[in-house]
Amino acid sequence: PAKYGIDANVKGSLIADGCIIEGQVEDSIIFRGVRVEKGAKVCGCIVMQDTVIRAGATLKYAIADKNVTITENRMLMGHSNYPLAISKFSIV
Fold first, then answer.
1. What are the residue ranges of helices labelled H in the chain?
2. How far is CA 29 from CA 2, 3, in A?
3. Residue 88 CA, distance from chain mean position
4. Dist CA 15 CA 89 (whole Å)
5. Contact (Cβ atoms closer than 8 angstroms) between residue 54 and residue 34
6. For residue range 53-68, what is the model confidence (pLDDT) as tens digits?
7. Which of 49, 51, 62, 84 has the most CB atoms less than 10 A away?
8. 58, 53, 13: which is closest to 36 by C-alpha?
């Protein structure tokens, strides 16, 4: 099952098994094994398998492929009509 931290805030999202959600997720699809650390925000995104979104990072309107790492305090934003795409094994 997915694990939710005490401060986790999830709205209108589909969260797969094996995820660890400690931050905020809204209107997103989160695949297996994704970790959203405390203070991270994910909004309107598709986040694929084994991706890590570090503390303080913000991800809006993005599609992250497998095994992506979004580093601490990074802000990445696309547009609802033109989402940002992040390729496999990227460290951003």
1. none
2. 13, 15
3. 14
4. 21
5. no
6. 999 999 999 999 999 9
7. 51
8. 53
Is 60:43 a contact under the CB 8 Å cutoff?
Answer: yes
CA dihedral 16, 20, 25, 28 (to 10 degrees): -20
What average pLDDT score do residues 16-21 get?
96
| Contact criterion met (CB below 8 Å) for 39 and 54 | no
Burial class (CB in 10 A: 0-12, 13-18, 19+), 63: middle
Lookup: tokens for 12: 């209108």
Q: Please give the Cα distance from 60 to 62 (Å, whole number).
A: 6
What is the pTM assigned to this prediction?
Answer: 0.93
Helix, strand, coil share (%) of the chain residues, nearest 5: 0, 45, 55
The single-letter DSSP state of residue 82 is: B
